[in-house]
Amino acid sequence: MKAFCFNIKADMGFFKKNDSNARVFTTYNFIHKPAVLGIFGAILGYSGYDRDRKNNGIEYYEKLKNFKIAIKPLYKKPLKKTVVVFNNSSGLASEETGGVLQAKEQVIVESLGYTIFVPFFETFSEAEKKIYEKLEYMVKNKYAEYPIYFGKNEFFAYFENYRSLNVEELERKEAVVDSLVKMKDVDFFGKTDEEEFDLFEEHKEEQKITLIEELPYELDENYMYVKDLFIFTDKELKIKNNEGFWRTIDDEIIYVF
Fold first, then answer.
1. What whole-number distance in Å separates Cα of residue 56 and Cα of residue 81?
2. 146: exposed, middle or buried (C-beta count within 10 Å: 0-12, 13-18, 19+)?
3. Nearest-CA neighbor of 42 among 130, 129, 156?
4. Confidence check: pLDDT of 202 > 60
């Protein structure tokens, strides 16, 4: 199957959790699919959330929601974070006296990057095929209609290392998966269902690490996050169902969702 991939990077990031408390807005450890689709929308020049509420739709999501991707983090450990305090006086975010809200955000303060894989599906509509071709052309030529960033426009991002490639369905049932993968689709060797995993499970002797996090993977009819547990590990996994698992010509194993 035809696909392309590219790297996207930034020096800092903030992928806001929508279930954070009012005191400190926290960040996910990884970029998630709705955020990646938002970056695609910025590259293509589609509109996002309508702050004036003239309509209830989100253009980029409606056009791109049938696209499937794989996300491969370019780091193997939790990144450094710090809490930043700032005054928000935009008028859109505060009804405080004086129109100023003091906000606290947990920000990733370490360079971060991802390889994004975008496969082409024959089930795409004609409109989606044209969107795919335009997106690939623009990524290949390093051009975006709107600036792209990691969560906030202060955290400017850039993309590079475009590659055109073919992927094929993975046939084997055991593999080290190079991308994020939903936990429900894999099992660990040597673990029973009753055994639990820490959020960050580190194996110093084997120099392996496992990161588990609940991440959004789509939006519902009200454009709210739909989430599931994802895992990123360099340990070999048992694959329950090969649907969604693909192998590149470089023998990278990716999970497309």
1. 34
2. middle
3. 156
4. no
Give per-residue pLDDT as tens, 148-164. Answer: 999 999 999 999 999 99
Q: What is the mean pLDDT of residues 125-147?
A: 98
CATH T-level assignment (fold) for domain 2-255: Alpha-Beta Plaits (3.30.70)
Name 182's Cβ contacts closer than 8 Å, sequence gap at least 6: 217, 228, 229, 230, 231, 255, 257
Q: Looking up tokens 């975010």, which residue turns up?
A: 93
Amino acid at 251: D
The C-alpha atoms of residue 160 and residue 144 are separated, in whole angstroms, by: 12
Q: What angle do CA 107, 58, 20 make, to 5 degrees?
A: 30
What whole-number distance in Å separates Cα of residue 34 and Cα of residue 3?
A: 19
237: nearest Cα among 207, 210, 205 = 210
Question: Is the pLDDT reported for residue 192 higher than 70?
Answer: no
**Model pTM score:** 0.88
